[in-house]
Structure formats: structure tokens, C-alpha cells
Amino acid sequence: MMAADSALLLGLVEEFVLGQQDRKAVDTATELKAGQFTILQLVEALGLHLTSSQPQTRARGVQLLSNVLQECHGDLTEREVEVLIVFYENRLKDHYVITPHVIQGLKALTKCSVLPPGSAVSILKSLFQDIHVQSLMLAERSCVYSILIQLMESRESELKGLGADFVFGFVQSVDGERDPRNLLLAFHIARKIIHEGYDLGKFTEELFEVTSCYFPIDFTPPTNDPHGITQEELVLALRAVLTGTPRFAEFLLPLIIEKLDSDVQSAKVDSLQTLTACASVYEHKELAQFLPGLWASLRREVFQTASEPVESAGLAAVGTLTACLSRSVLNSDSEDSLNVFLELVLKDCQHHLCEPDLKLVWPSAKLLQATSTASYRASHRVAAAVLPSLIEQYNSRTQCAQRRTLLEVLQGFVHPVKSSEEDESVLLDFRQSLCSIVFSALSESNADLQVTSMRVLTALGQQTGLLLESDVELAVDHLTRLILEEEDSKVSLAVVECAGALARLHPAAFISKMVPRLKEEIFSEPMAQGEIATPSQEHSQQAVRQRCVAALAAVSSRPSLVQESTPVLLQVLTSAHTGTGAFSLEEVISVCHSLQKIAEQAQDTEETGRVFHDVIPRLLGLALQAALQGSSDHRSPILEETVLSAMVPIISTTCARLQSQLAGQTASRAVSLFLDGDVSFLPENAFPSQIQLLKAGDSRSQSQMVCLLMGCVCWLPQTVEVPQMDRLLLELEELSCTCDHPLSYTSAAKCYAGLVNKSPAGEALDSLIDRMLKRISTELDSASSPVRTQAFTLLLWVSKALLLRYHPLSTALTDKLFSLLSDPELGSLAADGFSLLMSDSPDVLNRGSHADVRIMYRQRFFTENSAKLVEGFNAVVQENKSGYLKALSHIVNNLPRQVQLTELPALLPLLLEALSCPDQGVQVSTLSCLQPVLLDPPSALISQLEVLVGRTLALTTSPTMKVRIASLRCIHALSRFPEHEIMPFRARVLRALGAPLDDHKRVVRSEAAVARNEWFLLGSPGGK
Amino acid sequence: MSGGTRLENANPLIFQRTGERLQTANDEDEDVADPIDDREIFDLIRSINDPEHPLSLEELNVVEQVRVRVDDQGNTVGVEFTPTIPHCSMATLIGLSIKVKLLRSLPERFKIDVHITPGTHASEDAVNKQLADKERVAAALENSQLLEVVNQCLISNARTG
Asked: Has this prediction a pTM greater than 0.90?
């Protein structure tokens, strides 16, 4: 070593050890890494200090060495490590002030990849022998656990050579640990010991004791929670240990039984979940002797509990226990413990099923169902014991309420059990009785009974062999009858669900029996000739038809059914158009909804694709016929905006799912129809040749058809090329900027935006946007322009289209929108426009339409623009401020909650300002934006409580009902703030809420009552 | 509820719950005043928890809409409740819970009368007397143990509305 280096080293050592300069350790490590000296030279330089008679000095010396080792352990040779280990092991016997640094050093050494063979064992032996871990400080204890973990990872086989001594050493080290951070480490070690097959020897019980003493975990993190350890983490870590080996069973099961008696709900739930976890690794022999005790506790919990989580944890445990017992392979000499357990369950539960009015019928049924769904064998046994008496009772009872309960209980047993293919359904023996109960209940006049019987029917239908063909046909007849006759909305809903489920499995019966009957009903003449229907008769006939239409949609999931039902619905549209059937506007709209539903739910097959591919020309043809219709006395309902708007989603849902070849064809047909008036692909082709749909500015009925074009071209998959794009965009722009009919110009703008969103980036697109923006700006800048609203609409939609895809030009457009916020004419529209910009639109520019939507576009927009908004707000005159507030609250309202929380502190002053803004729209929007944030209040809010409470309370007597409701919800949410923060407001809030309790609107009163009751519970015993 | 305790009536009769009140067009019309009616009062009390069971007073048929009378103009509310068994020791507590819930939820102008359905409880008069006595109700609520039980009967009710 050069003299200069030696001086450097000695200097560093002196300064650290005697000069007490901690940062010299880092310098020493840096120099050592740089090769200025070796570890051996460092030890030599430390020599005097390490042998000093002063423990403090020795400690300081070891500390420097350990600190350096922490940085440099990777660079050591095996020989160096060996020597250092001997040194450190020896130091463990030294004075206690040195120990912490020795452990740090050992921890660094165990990380060496060149750890010599045998040293792992010797380190551990020294540690276990010379150190009493629990008298160390927190950090050193953690170090010891880290050493164990490190060695278990790198030197597993050596450690296993230690035999049970290793386990014993661990048990001794951890006994009495109290810190949750260290416990997580200790549980981790214990789990590795169990799972990686270390020899527990005679210390099984000790290992169990030393970990199970923490069960059940009761841990509340400190309020500022610096370490982020949760009760949940500890619970799961400990559970993994306790349930890790069947060898713990004899200790764990009695402990669980004991802890189930606890009064603390979380302890009960934890015990039950631990039981569930261990039952999935145990076998029957571990459980057998504890079954009576376990069952008694489980039964008590489910019978008596007031808490839903305890009940469901209890039922889950019963299920897993049953599954475990069913799984086990029996020896010839052991008795079948599954049977033993099921006998216990049946004995305690079965008789309660005979008392359908009493409370215990439900917990009993749930327990029995939990066992019967656990395994095939269990379901056999339980079904054989329970079903005959349930069936017998159903048939002998006469009260509807009792029969309904019995039927609901039965329903719980008619769930398919996972079993191998060849097992036949356990219900096969009861098939006939069950079917006859269902059919008799379906004929009852009691709605609840009908609804339940349909659920049972659905469940029976899901299992092979339980419904014969004749049963299905009978069921379809019943369902059809209910559709035609039953007016109760609950029943109608259940019929639709049941029919939908059965039709998927048995389409034939529905094709032959239900569809023709419903069709007949839909097209039946309202009254005999000459009679005039009373309004109520007309109404009820409409209701029947509505149900038929809804049912047709519900059953149409299989292609064969779609092929039957779709023509019926299209025929309704045709006959409504021609006026041959007397269909009301609502009926026509609901037919459209049904077609949309079929398009959505139909299985994605070539076959259904084709059916719907043919539906598009039919719809376009109908719409065109209606649009071209002269002024005859019958005005086609297809002309109505509501009907057209309902037709759009049928087309768009279909287009979004078309296969590419069909999609391309559809695109080119639609474009040539709208651009060139090409009607050749439309059915019943009898149209004039000179049609120009996009230029028919003066004919609303033609120009509004552009919404159908939007539904078609904007929803195609991105790979499909739309022909004549440039011309199409030009004409759409023209229509949207010149037409004076709102549906037409808005749809044109949306269609334009939808296409722009999918256009490839590049100069062509940029110049297109530039040109459009110039045109819009000219209109917007001229106060006298008659088409400012149109220009604004186009601006808004194109802004959205570009914003979604992160197009660089979007800023130019959104800036234009910001500048409109203080426009006297368009300001309010512009403010509301931000809501549209930030939320999903159902009909265009969404993911379903294959639009280019980047995730996080909202956050990005917010980050880039929130400053502009705040600046704008501060700059404008008072009367224009509300536009900014409204825009802000729309934007914040649509942000993900996480972002809201982080941005809130900056925005809070503005939001609080917005609460006292006289515009009621702003108030509602701000309150609804605050309310979710209040549920988990950030600290920024807490410092503003005074203002927040004051302003919100003032709004509870607003003249607008929505404001009153929203403000009361906020007051309610405020009651969940930390108690000490809000207690000072309690009296004031309770007094202020007295007024809305006497509001003239009931909805407001009930919100007030809910909020006031919550505030009453604050700080009150038993409250919270 | 502690695991070991025995319930007075472990397996009581249970009754169906009424659905949510149907919203009408009038309910959303700013200009139409909705009078406080029997159903509204019933909705306030039907989901109060029974002190013993994880069931609501409605499910145990302790309260019924037909036993609620309100006179919005006359500022009076009357509620009759029916204990599940004639010797139910919880009767006073249940009555108190109903009364407290109404006191917290109704405008001050109302006079609230809560009593036992005639002929359904062994010590009907005594209980009624206690519930009618303002000072005794106030004194009962000063007792923190009693208040705790009452609050617990009202707690989930306040959450589920």
C-alpha cells in the first residue's frame, strides 16, 4: 500500500471511530470499492480500536467495519468471508453495546455469494447460543430475522442439516415478539419452515404455540400509519402458517372452537376463514374427532348471528369441511366421517324445514345447501333426506306464504353440483314431483309463487335430464300464457329471464310454440270491427304487445331463434310505417330496443351476422321510404326523431360486430346511398333516382337520416376502409355548418367527428382540421352569424374526437372552447360542453365503436388545462365566472377518484366558491363532485371544514329540489369524517337539519332524516 | 351478540318485508307538496333492528303500517307496536327505539305517541306509561348503557335508509 493511501485509511478510521463522524463510513466504502485499500487493510487499520478496552470504542470499530461490509459484501473473496465470520461470531460474545453492529455485519456477510460451506450453520449456532433475540431492539431483531430468511433462501440444505435444532432456535428467537413489522418476517420464516419441509422434530407444538398465540390477530395501525402494515396482511400471513400443515390440526382445531366463542366479530370471521383454509388441506382423519365440536360452533354462528359476514364465513366453512370429508379415501376400518358429519347437520337442521313461518328455516336451509353443494356424495345424502319431506309439505300446505318459502328452499337445492360427467343428477328421482310442483305453482295466482317457480324451472333446465321434451313444451306454454296474461311487473321480468335461459338450451320448443303465438298476438286486430276501444282497453292491449316484443328479444340468443324473431319485429316496423297496424310511437321504439337487444346478445356467429347484415338495408329502406313520403294523411312514425334515434343503435351494434368482408360491403353501400343516392341494394326498390340525402338541407326528413349513416360508418372496425372519405367529410362538414335542424346538424357533426377520430394521422388530416377550424372560427367570431350554434356543435365534437386520440391539434380546438366560456350567447352551452368532452357518449366516439380512445385522456386534459381554467376564472368579470365554475365541476366530476383526491387541494378554493355561486346547475354539479370525495376525505378538506359545512348547510334550503338533495347527501357523507374533526359541528348540523325534515318534498325529507340520524349517532355510545 | 347467551325467543315467526316505496311523477315535481303519510312514518321505523335478532321490526311484525297513524295537519303521530311474545322483556327498549327514531327524523311540530298494541303484552300499561312520560324518556337516554343499545337498534337502519 502506498503511504498516502495508508494515511487516508487511517484518517478515515480515526474520524469515524474517535471523531464520531458517521458519514466517513460511506467515504471508506467508496474508497475501498475504488481499490484504494483492501478489507484486510481496513481490519488492520481498525486493529487498535477493535481491541480497545473501552466497549464504546470497540463498538465504533465494529460499526465501521459492518457499515462498509453492507456496501461491499459483493466484492469479498471466500477466504475473507471465512475470516470475517469467525471474527464476528466471536464478537457476539462481547459487550452488549457491540452486539447490534455485530448483527448488522453478519447480515451483510450472509448476503455474500461466496459464503463458505458450513458457515451458515455456524452463524446460526452462534446466534442462537449467544444472543437473546427478544432483549434486542426492534431493528436488530429484524436483522436476525433477515439473516434467517437470507440463509433459508441461499443455504437451505445446510440448514436442514441442523435438524430440529433450527426450528427450536427460531422458536426461541421469536418467542415474545410484539412488533407487527417483525411479526410479518417471523410468520414468513415459519411458513417457509413448514412449506419447505424443515424437520419439526419434537418441536411441532412449540412452533404452533409461538405463532398461534397471536391468533386471532387484533391490530389497528397507528393513525399516521408510517409502515403501511394492515390487519389483513398480518391475518393472511399468520393463517398461512397455522393452516400450513396437518400436523397442527390437533392444536389448531380446539383453538378455533375456542375463538369462535369470541364476542369480537372480526375474530369470529377470522376463525371461520382459518377453518375454511385448513379444511382445504386436511384430510378426514385430522377432522374426525373435532366434528361434533366444530359443528356445534358453526351451527350456533349461523343460527344466531346478526352479521352477514359471519354467516357467509360460517357457511363457507361448512361447505369446505364437507368437501374435505367427501374427498378422503376411507380405510376399511374407519367409519365414514362424511356420514357422521351429515347426520349431525341433518339432525339439527332438517326439522326446521318443516316450520316455514319461523326464523330458523332459512339458516337451516342455508346450512344444508352449503353441505349439499360441496360434493356429489353429500348432495345425494342431503337430497335423499330433505327433498321428500319438502315436496310432501309443499303439497299439503295451503297458505301461499308458506308454499313460497318451501319453494324458495327447494330452489336452493336445485343447483347443479360439480360432479363427473357420468354421475347422473341427484335430483333425477325427484324429477317428476319437482316438475309438477313447478307447473302447479305457475298456475297459481300469487305473483311471488310464480316468480319463485320460474327460478326453480330455470335451475331444473340447466341440468341434463331433469326436463323432458314434454316438460319443456309445457313450460313454454306456461311462459307464453304468463306473457299474454300476467300484468305484474315482477312476474313479467321473471318470465323474460326464465324464457331467455330456457330458450338458450331448448330453442326448438320456443320456435314452434312461443314465437308464432306471440306474433299472432302482436298483429291481432285490436277490436272486433265497428267497436271502439276504450282508452284502458287500448292501454292493456299495448301492454300485452310490449311484453310480447320484450319476450321475443329475450329468447333470441340462438341463431335459429334470431332467424324467427327478427322478421316479426321488422314486420312491426313496416306495418307501423305503412299504417296497416295500429302501433303507437312507444311500441315502435320498444321494437327498436328489442332489435338492438337481439343484436347485442346474439351469439357471434356467421349465421346471425348475416341475419343482421340484411337488417341494415331493411331499416335504411324503411327510413328512406318514410323520408320521401309525400304529404299523405298517415305520417309514418319512422319520421319521428325518437324512432330514428332508436334505430341508430341497432345499426351501430350490428356494424361494430360485422366480419370484415360484410363490414366493407356495408360501408360502401351506405356511403354510396348517402353520397350518390345509390338505392340499388335497398329492398322493395321503388325510389326516385335523384336523391341527395346530405344536400337536402331544406328537407329535414331526409337530412336527419344522417344519424343512420353515423351509426353505420362510425362503428365499423378500424380495419374497414370507408370509401370516398374526402368527399364524405366535405359534405358532412357542409351539412353540419349550414343546416338549421338540430338532429341533422348534430348527427352530421358527430359523424364527421367519428370519422376524423379514426382517420390516419398525417398532413391530410391536419390540413382538413385546419380548414374546418378556420371556417368554424369565422362563424363563431361573427356575432351576427345565424349558424354559430352549428359551428359550436361541430367544434365540440371534433375537439372530443381529437382529444380522445391525443391528437396535437386538439389543444387549438379546446382552447377555442375555453374562450367561448365568457361568450354571452354560447357561454352556458360551452360550459356544458365540457361534460360531453369528459364523459362517454353512448352513440359515437366510444370503445364499443372501435374509436381511438387513449386511456387517461381525462387526466391528461385536466393536467394540461386546469391552470388555464383557474386563470380564466380569475380574469373574467363576476357575471361570467359561473361558466368557468360549471366547466370546472364538469371536468372534475368525470375524473377518476384517485386523481380527484390528489388535485383537490389546489381546486378546493374554487369548488367552495362554486358552492356559493347562484347558478343552481353549478351547485348541483359541484355537490355531486364533492360527495364521493367526502366519503374518504383528504386532509385538505379537513382544514376547510368550517366553510364547507356552512355553505353546504345553506344549500339544504335551496329553492331547487336537486340542490337540497345533493347538499343533504354531502352532509350525510360529512358524518363519516374523523369524529374529533366534526364533533364541533354536531349541534349546528342537527339544528340546521331540522328545517329540511319538514320539507314539502318527501325525497328531501328522507335524505334529511338519514343524514340527521347519522349525525345523532356521532359521539353517542353505541353509535360510532 | 355473545355466542353463549340464550335468546328469549330463539325461533320467532318471520314476515315478509314490503318493497321500497314506488316513486311517482309527483314525487319529482318541485311544485307538488307531498304530505307526510302513514307509509312515510312506517318507512322510518320498519327497518329498526330488533335488539335480539338480526331481523328488522317489520320482519318480526312488531310494527305494521296499519298500526301507524299520522295527522300531518294536526301535528300528531301515533304508532302501535306488538311484542313477539306477551312477556317480552325488550318491549320498553323497542318502544324507546321507535320513539327515538321518530324524534330524530320528524319535524319538531309533531307530538309523537308510541304505545303497545292493546292486549299484546303482560305489562302493557307500565310500558305505555314509561314511553309517554317525557321526563322518563329523557332520563332513559341519559343512561349511556341504554342509549348504547338504542343506538345499536338504529344503526344499520340509518345506513340502509
From this structure: no
